[in-house]
Amino acid sequence: MPDLKLKEKPADSESLADRMTALGRAARAAATQLASTSAEQRNKALRGAANEIRQHSGEILKANQADMAAAQERGLGSALLDRLMLDDDRIAGMADGLETIAELPDPLGQVLAAWDRPNGLQIQRITVPLGVIGIIYESRPNVTSDAAGLCLKSGNAVILRGGSESFASSSAIWRCLQAGIESAGLPPDAVQMIATTDRDAVGYLLSSMSNYIDVVVPRGGKGLIKRVQEDARVPVIGHLEGLCHVYLHESAATGMACDIVLNAKMRRTGICGAAETVLVDRAAAARLVPALVARLLAAGCEVRGDAGVAELADGVLPASEEDWDTEYLDAIIAVRVVNDCGGAIAHIQQHGSGHTESIVAEDEQAVRRFFAEVDSAILLHNASTQFADGGEFGMGAEIGIATGRIHARGPVGAAQLTSYKYLVRGTGQLRP
Amino acid sequence: MPDLKLKEKPADSESLADRMTALGRAARAAATQLASTSAEQRNKALRGAANEIRQHSGEILKANQADMAAAQERGLGSALLDRLMLDDDRIAGMADGLETIAELPDPLGQVLAAWDRPNGLQIQRITVPLGVIGIIYESRPNVTSDAAGLCLKSGNAVILRGGSESFASSSAIWRCLQAGIESAGLPPDAVQMIATTDRDAVGYLLSSMSNYIDVVVPRGGKGLIKRVQEDARVPVIGHLEGLCHVYLHESAATGMACDIVLNAKMRRTGICGAAETVLVDRAAAARLVPALVARLLAAGCEVRGDAGVAELADGVLPASEEDWDTEYLDAIIAVRVVNDCGGAIAHIQQHGSGHTESIVAEDEQAVRRFFAEVDSAILLHNASTQFADGGEFGMGAEIGIATGRIHARGPVGAAQLTSYKYLVRGTGQLRP
Description:
CATH topology of the largest domain in chain A: Aldehyde Dehydrogenase, Chain A, domain 1
Radius of gyration of chain A: 24 Å
Strand order of the largest sheet of chain A: 10-9-11-8-7-12-13
Number of helices of chain A: 14
Oligomer: homodimer
Order of helices and strands of chain A: HHHHHEEEHEHEHEHEHEHEHEEHEHEEEE
CATH class of the largest domain in chain A: Alpha Beta
Number of strands of chain A: 16
Strand content of chain A: 15-25%
Largest sheet of chain A: 7 strands, parallel
Distance between the termini of chain A: 60 Å
Helix content of chain A: 40-55%
Shape of chain A: globular
Number of domains of chain A: 2
């Protein structure tokens, strides 16, 4: 691993603007180079980075132990410590992840559409990189390799800014990425990292770098996403929250309905694709609610229900209006009885976050209506909301699930980190 | 035409925020309704609006005469007066334009991709409307019908804000659009217009309506676009400028090279796809430059050249560094001799705006390199840059040419005003 030092203590004479502009220029130059590289070269860089991570896992662990010690000293909570912590498995996971990304089909140079015009012009729309991507993330050090890997795969240069608590870990990983990139003969500035001593760097990046950054992807909690969306003068691909619903239509089979809700809620409660609210058709409530509540309680899940639910099952706490708008990210679920499919759709329109919803039903007409009228990034029929994931979609990896409607929606993988251009071939055509 | 009055003098007690929020809510409700409409209904609304415009052309003309008189009184320039002016032909053009949009294929419900997963999940990605689009434009009243027509076609609600100088004309057109929409049984709030007496409305729309507006499309000069990009807290699809190049490779045929440059510059000098700079390979300069300059001068075009050009032809004014960065939008062209294809690409990278560039060449390898390395929305080979147009691309109509890289790039037609969602069909799958 070459000795690529991060400027942790920049010279005072160099202003933040100067440092950020230098970073931006270097990223833009690297992006221009990357745009003309072959898939083979980019995949070689990804595999090289995976090797570097495996070879330097000891250094990465050591850096992580320093981060962990500092975090414990500062009294950070156990959830954050868990996100921050690296071990051999997690480091191997990062290396494997980069190799998986290398195996994906090349997202660049794909012909999205091709047609001929009556005047003989031949038009093609082909994929190209977005350019320079800014990734702002929090305490998970593995985002460093996951996000940079997807950017590299799609020919984009990336500027990383991780959380201060994971800075030593992220820097160690980043050095491995740069070494891998260099081993493939690509420009190391394809992946740059902002020192966390530059406290105002995020603000500067969001507000003053539209010449150098094509899009910012925030990865983290609500606070981060909100800040980015408020301050950004550059385009943002972000997700706000995942307030996911499971709707049990009256035609739902009892066993499947319970299995799906249990999986959607309890498989992992802390991810954005976890279900937060179950809506049950009134016509089937007497059949579905008792079975469902018993299963949830037995699994250790707190159940908050409206009056219609409470009268059908024991152990249900009363739900308030606020519950319909709460992303618990915990072993708590809100259950409500609705009149019919229209009632479920209206509830989701009012309270949903546009992330992922599932309908459990045997009635095909209800499914069609739900699919047509619910406006969320991902709609599922007879499947768990926890499938809302780029890997589960077969996209290999993802940088997040976008809930916005511009550019990318749903899982954001390498293919979503592309733009396109038109290539038009003529034989001397002039416009009349 | 129903008597749909625009609140030109809102009650003082109603704040701008209240009025804008009401507008936003109404647009969101209309968007929800529009998303479930059939193509037939939306096309019926477009044809209905075209009929209303034809039937009420007298009223539109009268409104336009009032706008024109006020503009002349205020001493506005002839270019602006020409953009503002409507006559029978232009009004017929608006109606025809709406009918052309009605004939286009439905951009909604298109299956962009479909695949199955090993666990049996069937995944589809299908197109859906963006939601609510804000259009901010200047003096051309026909943007009212063109832009609203494309939004309606793609199932989007739209909030229009035209320039104050064209307000009477735009309002008359807008009333026809609403009448057409109502005649098809669709919600008239699908197309709303902001009164120009709400002076701070644009600022409010850009900064405070992210809950109600999914994307803003500015249509107008540099000043407008810049203001929108600086102030927007909502996503923007915009184009900055069209500094288009024609590169004459040494393999270019003399006649075709001259024809293409003449058409690219002089067919219409004021459009964004007009060429502003010609780059000529040094190896062919002695053959190409004299013929080209003679043709340009004969056509009444001012030619500004570097030393290499000036020594090969008479009548060439000296070009300064500034010329390479100037979008003349006039009968002026800058001509420069470059060493080779790499020199042309480097010039375009430094000075281009990412809009449209053309290479004239018989050498296929040069074309491939130019297509691969130049990063603009539209690249042409042996064809005029003035083909940079949604209609010429066969997209029926466009709301502009996007030079950004997010969401849409190049001509923005009805299909580009869509997002997508994932529909996933299962048989009870749980995530392991």
